[in-house]
Design a protein that fits this description.
The protein starts with a strand and ends with a helix. It has 24 helices and 18 strands. The longest helix has 20 residues. It is 40% helix and 16% strand.
Length: 640
C-alpha cells in the first residue's frame, strides 16, 4: 500500500491505483476495505480488525469484509482517538474528511507504516522500498544503527529506521494533513497504577485471555506456531476449548544449524509433540536446516523480503518460512497464532529460565528470573529513589555476575536522572541490570554512545520518566516495550514478515490492549517479585484452575541445548558451524559496513579486527562473537 499526499502523483509503482483526488493518491496490492461514513467521509482500512467495544463495555468480533454496517457506524460515531481506544486490531487506516486527511493505526501501531515528508507532502507505505525509491541521496542514522547493532533483537526503535528522514508511525501516533500542513500527532501517555489483586482479578484475567483468543480466531481453522513453553500451548488449550481439536493445527520448527551440534531444539520438539498429542491436535514440523548449500540459496531468496520490512535478526528467516508453510498448506480463511509478547508483558522478559544458566535446577533458574524482574519492579525502584540500592543483596548478586562491567553511581544523580538511567539500563542495554553503563559495549565509541542515549532519551524516555513512580513502573516499562523490544526479532518477524507470503499478519493474543492494561496494573507479588509465586503467575493459575491443560508435561529441560549445556550457543552454530559461514565470510571480507557506519560513532578498528578474524577462519566466543553476529546480520540483510 502507498499513500501519497501533495506529492503531485510523482510515484512509480506497480501497485494498483485505488483512489485519486486533487492532492491524494492511493495505491494498493494488499487487500483493503473502503467505507463511506455517515458524513460522506471516505475510510480505507488495511489489515485486520478483530473486535470493537460496544457502549456496554463488551467486545464483539468484527470481520471487515462482512461487518460493513458496524464499521461505518463505529467510525461515524467516534473520533479517531476515541475509536482507537475501543478497537482491537492490526491495521492501518486512511480517513479523508472535508479536505483533511488522517493516517492512523491501532493502539500500538502494530501494522508497519513507513513514511517520509516531501516538501509540504508525504509518502507513506507498508513497504519500506516504496518510500526509499523517492530519495535521491540516501543517508543513514548512526544513532539508530547503534540501537540495531547493540541491543538484542537487532531492531530500530519504533519511530525510526536506519535511513535518515524515513520514519515509522510510532506508538500512539497518527499523521494529520490539513490546510497544506502535515503534523505528527501523538496521544499522551497516561500510566496506570498497580493495585492489590485477588480472586476477582484471577477470573478477570481468564476472561480477557479467552476473549483475546476468540476475537482473533477463525471458525475454519486455527494454526499455532508451536513451542514447548506455556505461551503457545496456552493458546492451544483455549482454542481447543472453544473450537475442538479438529479446527486447530500446530506447526513447529526443527532447528539444525550445524552438523556438529545436530538438532538443537529436540527438547522443544519432544514436548510440543506430547502437548499436541494430549489435545488430539495435528502438529507438523518444518526443517530449519542450515547445513547445506540449499539453505544458502533459500536465504538469498528471503533476504529482499526481510530488507523491505526492515528486519535484521537472522531468526526472522525461521518465522518467514513457518508462515510460508502455513500459506502453502492452509486456507486464506485460517487464523495464525503465535505466543510472542507474553514473556515481556507478564515478566518484563525475564521468563525463559535464562538469567542464570549455570545451575541445572529449573526451579532455581525460574527464581533467578524473578530476581532479575524484581530489580525493575516497584520495591527496588523505591530503594533507587531513596538512594539505597548498594546494600540490596539481589542487586549485589546480579552485579557480581557482570564480568567487571562499570555501573553508574546514583548518589551523584538527582531524581530525574535516576529515572532516565533506570529506563536506559532496561531498554538500551543487552544485559539488563539497573545503572549498567553503555560504555561497556566495544562496538560503539564514547561519543556514539552519548549521542545515541541523548537522542533516544529525548524521543522515547523523557515523557515516560516524568510520570515514573513506584506505582507506575510496570505501566511505564510495558508502554516502552512497544517501542523497543517488541520491534525485535520474534514480534516483528511474525507480525510484518509473514505478510508477504500469507497476505495477513500473524496474531498474538498477548498483544491485546485489554491484557496490557490489566498487566500494567498487576502487582509485584503476582510473579514479578521475590515472593514464591511462579513467573507468568496469572497465566499458570489459569491453566491450573480454569482450563484443561497438561501441567505434568511442563517438566525437564525447556527448549534448547543450553538448558543442559550452558556453553552451547545458537550464535556460535550459526556463525561458525552452518553452511552460511562461507557465504557470510564472502560478504564480510570487503567490509561493506564501512559504507554506512561512521567512525565517530563506531569503533571500526575493533569491528575490522573481529571481521578479519572471522574471514580468516578463526572461531571465538563471548562478547566478541555477539558483536560479530550484529555486524553479520546487518551485512547479510543489507540496505538500500
Amino acid at each position: 500500500m502507498i499513500i501519497c499526499v501533495n506529492c503531485n502523483g510523482n510515484i512509480t509503482t506497480e501497485e494498483s491505483p485505488v483512489y485519486q483526488s486533487r492532492n491524494v493518491f492511493v495505491f494498493s496490492k494488499e487487500d483493503y476495505e473502503k467505507f463511506i461514513l455517515a458524513d460522506e467521509s471516505i475510510l480505507f482500512l488495511w489489515g485486520e480488525v478483530y473486535a470493537i467495544c460496544m457502549p456496554n463495555g463488551t467486545y464483539i468480533s468484527i470481520d471487515l469484509k462482512t461487518h460493513e454496517r458496524d464499521i461505518v457506524n463505529f467510525f461515524s460515531n467516534y473520533s479517531i482517538d476515541q475509536a482507537i481506544d475501543k478497537i482491537e486490531g492490526n491495521f492501518v487506516g486512511l480517513l479523508i474528511r472535508n479536505g483533511e486527511i488522517a493516517i492512523f493505526g491501532d493502539e500500538f501501531n502494530r501494522k508497519e507504516l513507513f513514511y517520509r515528508k516531501i516538501n509540504d507532502g508525504i509518502i507513506a507505505s507498508t513497504n519500506l522500498k516504496a518510500v526509499i525509491k523517492t530519495i535521491d541521496t540516501i543517508r543513514y542514522s548512526q544513532n539508530v544503527l547503534v540501537n540495531l547493532l547493540t541491543i538484542y533483537g537487532y531492531y530500530a526503535p519504533k519511530k525510526h529506521t536506519i535511513y535518515r528522514d524515513v520514519y515509522r508511525l510510532g506508538v500512539g501516533e497518527r499523521l494529520h494533513f490539513s490546510l497544506g500542513s502535515l503534523t505528527v500527532e501523538k496521544k499522551p501517555f497516561e500510566p496506570l497504577k498497580t493495585g492489590s489483586f485477588g480472586i476477582k482479578e484471577h477470573n478477570e484475567y481468564v476472561e480477557i485471555m479467552r476473549s483475546a483468543v476468540e476475537i482473533r480466531a477463525s471458525s475454519h481453522c486455527n494454526w499455532i506456531f508451536m513451542s514447548s513453553g506455556f505461551d503457545s500451548s496456552s493458546i492451544l488449550a483455549l482454542l481447543v476449548e472453544k473450537y475442538g481439536p479438529e479446527k486447530v493445527r500446530c506447526v513447529v520448527g526443527r532447528m539444525k544449524y550445524s552438523e556438529r551440534a545436530g538438532v538443537i531444539n529436540q527438547f522443544e520438539l519432544d514436548r510440543a509433540h506430547k502437548i499436541a498429542e494430549y489435545f488430539g491436535v495435528r502438529i507438523d514440523q518444518v526443517d530449519f536446516d542450515f547445513t547445506g548449500q540449499k539453505s544458502v540459496e533459500s536465504w538469498k531468496q528471503t533476504i529482499p523480503l526481510l530488507r523491505d520490512q526492515h528486519l535484521y535478526a537472522y531468526s526472522a528467516y525461521n518465522f518467514y518460512h513457518l508462515a510460508k508453510y502455513v500459506a502453502d498448506n492452509g486456507n486464506s480463511d485460517d487464523a495464525v497464532f503465535v505466543g510472542a509478547v507474553s514473556d515481556g508483558v507478564h515478566n518484563l522478559g525475564f521468563a525463559q529460565f535464562a538469567t542464570i544458566l549455570e545451575h541445572p535446577d529449573i526451579g532455581f533458574r525460574e527464581y533467578s528470573d524473578k530476581m532479575a524482574s524484581y530489580l525493575f519492579g516497584p520495591s527496588f525502584f523505591k530503594r533507587i529513589l531513596e538512594g539505597d540500592i548498594e546494600n540490596d543483596f539481589v542487586y549485589q548478586i546480579m552485579k557480581s555476575r557482570s564480568d567487571g562491567a562499570e555501573f553508574y553511581n546514583i548518589k551523584k544523580m538527582d531524581e530525574y536522572e535516576k529515572k532516565i538511567k533506570f529506563l536506559e539500563s532496561f531498554f538500551h542495554r543487552n544485559r539488563r541490570i539497573p545503572f549498567l553503563k553503555l560504555k561497556n559495549i566495544s562496538l560503539v565509541t564514547q561519543g556514539g554512545a552519548e549521542s545515541f542515549e541523548n537522542e533516544m532519551a529525548n524521543i522515547y524516555l523523557k515523557e515516560v520518566a516524568e510520570k515514573l513512580i513506584p506505582e507506575t513502573v510496570y505501566s511505564c516499562i510495558l508502554y516502552l516495550y512497544n517501542s523497543y523490544f517488541w520491534q525485535g526479532s520474534t514480534e516483528r518477524s511474525t507480525n510484518a514478515g509473514a505478510l508477504d507470503v500469507m497476505g495477513k499478519t500473524i496474531t498474538s493474543p498477548y498483544w491485546d490492549g485489554r491484557l496490557h492494561r490489566f498487566l500494567s496494573k498487576m502487582p509485584e507479588d503476582w510473579g514479578r517479585g521475590l515472593e514464591l509465586r511462579p513467573t507468568k503467575y496469572p497465566l499458570k493459575w489459569m491453566l491450573q484452575n480454569a482450563v484443561d491443560y497438561p501441567l505434568h508435561l511442563q517438566t525437564g529441560p525447556h527448549s534448547y541445548l543450553y538448558d543442559v549445556n550452558p556453553q552451547f550457543s545458537h550464535t556460535s552454530e550459526f556463525l561458525f558451524g552452518s553452511a552460511l559461514k562461507f557465504y557470510l565470510q564472502e560478504i564480510l571480507k570487503n567490509r561493506p559496513y564501512e559504507e554506512i557506519l561512521e567512525s565517530s560513532y563506531f569503533n571500526l578498528e575493533y569491528i575490522n579486527s573481529i571481521v578479519d578474524e572471522y574471514v580468516a577462519g578463526r572461531e571465538f566466543s563471548g562478547a566478541k562473537m555477539n558483536d560479530l553476529l550484529a555486524i553479520a546480520n546487518l551485512c547479510l540483510i543489507g540496505w538500500y
